[in-house]
Specification:
The chain contains 1 helix and 6 strands, in the order βαβββββ. With about 110 residues, the protein is mainly beta. The chain starts with about 30 loop residues before the first strand and ends in a 7-residue tail after the last strand.
């Protein structure tokens, strides 16, 4: 009886998979920039007494701020999302994504 034939050598070919570019790299999303980038910066603002800007986030597009956003609690118990456009108002549209539908506020909407 002859010895069994050696099994063929399998080469493992591992191709380097390039990750998908981030939505920030493709400019599909504006990049968030916290006003206070860490807890020490927040503490400094708290010590100064100027707490109005804590939690504000700038969203930038090509190194310029498009909108500043923060969320607060209203007197009626609701959460309010505050959007402060830093560009031409015609560039801002608000899309509220809900479980069953999408509500869109166009730039032509009248102020309250």
């Amino acid at each position: 009886m002859s010895p069994p034939a050696p099994e063929p050598t399998r080469k493992h070919h591992h191709e380097a998979v390039q990750p998908e570019p981030s939505p920030y790299a493709t400019e599909a999303r504006c990049e968030p920039q916290l006003w206070q980038s860490n807890s020490e910066a927040v503490a400094e603002v708290m010590r100064s007494g100027d707490t109005e800007d804590i939690g504000d986030v700038d969203f930038t597009d090509e190194d310029s701020t498009v909108v500043t956003v923060h969320v607060s609690h209203s007197d009626d118990g609701m959460c309010a999302v505050h959007l402060m456009p830093m560009c031409n108002d015609d560039r801002i549209r608000v899309e509220l994504h809900r479980e069953k539908d999408l509500a869109i506020i166009e730039p032509s909407s009248r102020p309250v």
